[in-house]
Amino acid sequence: MTDRQGEKLEMYARVVATCKRFLSVYSNIPTMVNALELLEKGIVEIQQASQQQAENNTYGLAEEKNKEYEGLSEQAIKIANILYIFAFINKDYVLKSKVNVNKSMFYNTRDNDVIILANVIAAEAEKHIDEIKDYGIDQTEIDILKNAIATFTTHIQKLQTTKKERKVATTNLKFLFAKVDSVVYDLLDKHITLFKSSAPDFYLQYKAARNLIEMRRKKQERRRKRKQERN
């Protein structure tokens, strides 16, 4: 949820609280009562959508992916270097070109291409396993790489899924705010004009509750005071 959306949600809550204090003033107007019910329902829907958006935070997954990325690249490069030495000594130029990689190639490559590159290295290592044992690479080292590839792939898939779900939640929030805005602007704001003369206290308090600019000013003032107190 953006700061602007958060301010709107606070405003909606203030409008509901204000209207409920003056329920007796408009209880005989069904359309006004219904509009307030729609606003309360909209607030709940926004809160639920906001929670879904928060649950789909990608920060933790991205951190995990980066850790796996580091381990994967180091293991792949270690094996690739041994394969390169083997290819160089045996004048296997095809293999040499396949495993001629460095760290920058991993870090400047898209995630899916990193997986392809690492799988090529693992496959070549298994193909030449009997020949590179004397170079310090055995099946255990290859299995470490294969496990790192599998884990990294899982993290990428989770991250991609979470990003999609967060995008859906964000889009849903925009839709819900637009819907609730319509309830406030097109229904409640129009109804409140009925009470400008007959219930001026209700009218003025409603207008104050609707004032986003004043709310923002008061919030900024509270922040300044807290900062001064800390200093």
Poorly predicted runs are none
- What is the total number of structural domains? 2
Structural class: mainly alpha
- Give the CA-based shape: rod-shaped
Short description, anyone?
This protein is mainly α and 231 residues long. Helix content is 85%, strand content 0%.
Notes on the structure:
This protein has 231 residues and is mainly α. The protein folds into 2 domains: 3-58 and 166-230, no CATH class; 63-162. The chain is 85% helix and 0% strand. It has helices at residues 3-21, 23-26, 30-55, 59-89, 93-98, 103-107, 111-127, 129-132, 139-192, 200-210, 212-230. Helix 3 (30-55) packs antiparallel against helix 9 (139-192) and helix 4 packs parallel to helix 7 (111-127). The longest helix has 54 residues, at 139-192. The protein is rod-shaped, with a radius of gyration of 31 Å. The two termini are 30 Å apart. The mean pLDDT is 88.
Topology overview:
Blueprint (H helix, E strand, L loop, with lengths): L2 H19 L1 H4 L3 H26 L3 H31 L3 H6 L4 H5 L3 H17 L1 H4 L6 H54 L7 H11 L1 H19 L1
Helix pairs in contact: 1-3, 1-10, 3-9, 4-7, 4-9, 7-9
Note the main attributes of this structure.
231 residues; mainly alpha; 85% helix; 0% strand
